[in-house]
Design brief:
Elements (H helix, E strand, L loop, with lengths): L1 E10 L2 E12 L4 E5 L6 H8 L5 E8 L2 E2 L5 H7 E4 L11 H7 L13 H13 L15 H14 L4 E5 L7 H18 L2 E5 L3 H7 L2 E6 L2 E6 H7 L1 H5 L5 E4 L2 E4 L4
Helix pairs in contact: 3-5, 4-5
Subcellular location: Cell membrane
GO biological process, one term: iron ion transport
InterPro entries: AAA+_ATPase, ABC_transporter-like_ATP-bd, P-loop_NTPase, Siderophore_ABC-ATPase
Length: 253
């Protein structure tokens, strides 16, 4: 379980989002973080992965403070897919996936048969087999996004944090990918927490919602969130309405 205790995230001494008390995420859950632009979705994700300074509070993984884990231990618990893409453009797709097995290889970094099996399964699952020898720098944005998500899956962590994982994908591939990730969570007992602007898909596929509004973080099941009618409060607009979590647009003819 990931547990955030009295969390405050932001920049310098400026708090962007906060939660007073314990904010806990159980295993085998598919969880989305929603909020307006600048509300703190990405900041919260980075703070959970220790990529962002905490103004206040602590992050616990399996009831142990995240600061007390070694780098190798951390790499077995959390993998990330952020909007900032940091990798060598000269590596092939397969080489990128191979590097994500580093937490499990021996001291010389040699891959075992099990590592290759995990990589091959990811290449097939994310429709990347035909691209495995392509250099990362030659891929389209959509192809590269699938590679980076596959890389996180290959790392085989208990928790995966993703920032806008469906960016650069068309609508049918957005739905296919999120359904695939949801099923992965439930079948393998993993937890994915991802920030998104795809409200309709989040309502349809996620188990739980984390919403950030006016600096306050809330965590609810989908049914409770829909009943609360917070969507209209978070996204007020004369052109957008929400009914039972379904987005409706209203334009003058």
């Amino acid at each position: 379980m990931i547990r955030l205790e009295n969390i405050q995230v932001g920049y310098g001494h400026c708090v962007v989002a906060a939660f007073d008390g314990d904010l806990a995420f159980a295993k085998a859950k598919f969880i989305s973080i929603i909020g307006t632009n600048g509300s703190g979705k990405s900041t919260l994700l980075r703070a959970m992965a220790s990529g962002q300074h905490l103004i206040n509070g602590n992050v616990f993984i399996e009831n142990k403070n995240w600061n007390d884990y070694t780098a190798v231990e951390r790499s077995k618990f959390i993998s990330v897919v952020l909007t900032e893409r940091s990798f060598s453009h000269f590596l092939s797709v397969r080489e990128l996936l191979e590097l994500s097995r580093a937490p499990y290889t021996n001291y010389i970094g040699k891959l075992a048969a099990e590592d290759h099996e995990v990589i091959n399964e990811a290449l097939e699952s994310f429709d990347l087999k035909q691209l495995e020898n392509r250099k990362a720098g030659t891929l389209s944005d959509g192809q590269l996004q699938r590679v980076l998500i596959a890389r996180a899956i290959v790392q085989d962590t208990e928790y995966i944090l993703m920032d806008e994982p469906t960016s650069h994908l068309d609508i049918n591939h957005k739905a296919d990918l999120l359904l695939q990730l949801r099923d992965y969570c439930h079948e393998h007992g993993k937890t994915i927490i991802y920030a998104t602007h795809e409200i309709q898909l989040a309502m349809s596929l996620c188990d739980e919602i984390v919403s950030i509004h006016k600096g306050s973080i809330a965590h609810e099941t989908i049914s409770d969130f829909v009943k609360s009618n917070k969507l209209q409060e978070i996204f007020p607009s004369k052109h957008v309405a929400f009914e039972n979590g379904i987005v409706q647009f209203k334009f003058d003819s």
